[in-house]
Write a structure and sequence with these properties.
With 207 residues, the chain is mainly beta. It contains two helices and twelve strands. It has a domain at 2-91.
Amino acid sequence: MVFAVQDLQGDVATVASLGRDDASGLKEKDWVEIVDDGSELAGLPGALRQVKAVDPSRRTVTLAAADWEPRPPVYTEEGEALARHALLRRWDHRASPQPKGVGEPQPNGSALFVFPSDPNQALDWVTLESGVRIQFQQGSFRPGDYWLIPARTATGDVEWPGPPEDPAPLLPHGVEHHYAPLALVGPEGSGLKVLQDLRGKFSPLAK
């Protein structure tokens, strides 16, 4: 679930909506990631913060102080958070009172994955819920990587290539960002000037 941020002052975020119900909303001790256009387009992780308090009447969310980097974005001008499309992304991973094994939630809400020294050896299987298990192999991971595991009540199983006893490894489904050059610019005095227009132009459809 994501919640549009209208304003963020210090540790207090004002959101457009707190969700339709308890299942889709925010509550104390939830974990949220603060992201905006800058972090999303640059492929950077957002700041992971825990919800300290929620005020439904004011639609405000008070976040616990951050104790690790990256720090959340700072908005100094009115409306800047809204203009940069800031979001609180709720994570359903719950904290555990004590650190446990590989993939188990840690006290700070994160999940610990320690890869074996052998680069050809994968991690042990990690149980998510309802019999769904995942396994990571060593490689390059990026913020925003995700995998979809469709579950079907008709079959009582998930849709994944390969037999159940030997499922096939898959690369992340995304996120992919695509870019198109608009212009080649260069310095001119104290500013910039367009050296070459790189936009793809086409004739008008009607005259």
